[in-house]
């Protein structure tokens, strides 16, 4: 089975032409994401391969999604910090790459055989909906509440000891021992 890479194009006069197929594959996390996030992941891969053909000249990258805005605003939600820095270095910080949002349709999208309704959406909203864990979760203060503090620890003093405590300002609400094989991190989480 032949693997399919990412297509890339170059602009010749007023025509954008496909010049080849990049052997690069999107990583597994990007393949499962919506088009906006796949565009953010695939653009740096293509931009890294293109200088072989442009011989280091200034490039204009045509994308169908607001890639640079998505990376600047919401990019940190999805890729790992290493990938985020890589994407940012390639797409935002390079002087010889200009990213232009276009409504040009990729001819490869017609290969599926069906001409469905066009997907119209706001990329930043789609990224927010995909990357946020709880859409209905709001940050609001509760009135007339008690402030509780928690602590968990694990130490070795004449044997291994682990425990947790939940307190108010001057009162212990709950405390207890934990199994002796409990790590300090697990004790904090338990508390």
From TrEMBL:
Signal peptide: none annotated. InterPro entries: RNaseH_domain, RNaseH_sf. PROSITE patterns: RNASE_H_1 (PS50879). Residues 142-191 form the RNase H type-1 domain. This is RNase H type-1 domain-containing protein. GO terms for molecular function: nucleic acid binding; RNA-DNA hybrid ribonuclease activity. It comes from the Eukaryota.
